[in-house]
Every structure is written in C-alpha cells, then in structure tokens.
Design a protein that fits this description.
155 residues; alpha+beta; 2 domains; two-stranded antiparallel ribbon; 6 helices; MacB_PCD
C-alpha cells in the first residue's frame, strides 16, 4: 500500500526524500564544523600550555583604566613563583616605541619579560641564546628579536 502511494505521488515522495537528504547533510555539516572548531581551540590552548594562567591588572579583559593600575608589581610574580604548585612565572610589560639600528628607524612593540618567558610560552629561539636570571638581575641590555625585525635591520 505504501509503495502504491509513493508511486502515485512521485513529486511528493521526491521532495520528501530531498528534505531528508538536506536535513542529514545540514546536521553532518554542523557537527563537523563544531568538531573542527573544538579541535582548533584545544590546539590553541595547548600551544600556550594547558596549565597556563595569565594575570592582568583591571576588572576585565580590555579594561581601559588598567593601564593606570600599579598594584600588580614584580614582587607579585616573585610571590607566585615561590608557591609549590607553580612551575614557571614571568612578568611582562608591553609598550610601543621607535626602534633604531644604525640608519634604520621603525615603530615597534617592545616587551619586557622575565627569564622564564620562553619556557612559559613554549617558544624556541631560531638562533642565538636566551638571557638568564643573571641578565635580568643585572638589568643587562639584551634583546631577542623576531625574524621580521632581523630582516628590517639587516639592510
């Protein structure tokens, strides 16, 4: 009886089948998109470390008043480093300024970081050596630059 009804109403049957196919394809696409997004987010999180916590001054991320808050100081990083459950701590200060080398001047971002920065961020140097605790204590004027900066100043 059902086959007779399907045969008698071919257009309705075809449209119903098309609707089912489109519905299944939509569900599969949404699930695949969600899974791909989940993997990308987890990949990004694991790139900075699954147990990494960043502390910023201010009430919320992007707080415009945070730039004027001076209650988060280097001693806080030292206190965190003394905790038994903490592996690595690095303070970080970021500013923009003019970078000069010989006759080349460019505007750039400057980051002041602690000696454990590269461990915390899982960054490997392509060449050269990293500064250490002694360099930080002595306030040595040592610089680590990225490849783009190297190319800019090597002209």
């Amino acid at each position: 009886m059902a086959l007779l009804s399907m045969n008698a109403h071919r257009l309705r049957t075809s449209l119903t089948m098309l609707g089912i196919i489109i519905g299944i394809a939509a569900v599969v696409s949404v699930v695949a998109l969600g899974e791909g997004s989940r993997r990308k987010i987890l990949e990004d999180i694991s790139a900075i470390g699954t147990n990494t916590v960043e502390v910023f001054p201010g009430k919320d991320f992007g707080d415009e008043k945070a730039v004027n808050i001076r209650t988060l100081v280097a001693a806080d990083a030292d206190a965190l480093a003394r905790e038994p459950y903490v592996d690595s701590v690095t303070p970080e200060v970021v500013t923009s300024n003019t970078l000069r080398y010989r006759n080349v001047s460019v505007n750039g971002s400057i980051q002041g970081v602690g000696e454990q920065y590269f461990r915390v961020r899982a960054v490997k140097l392509a060449q050269g050596k990293c500064f250490d605790e002694t360099s930080v204590v002595r306030r040595a004027q040592e610089v680590v630059i990225d490849e783009g900066t190297r190319r800019t100043f090597s002209t």
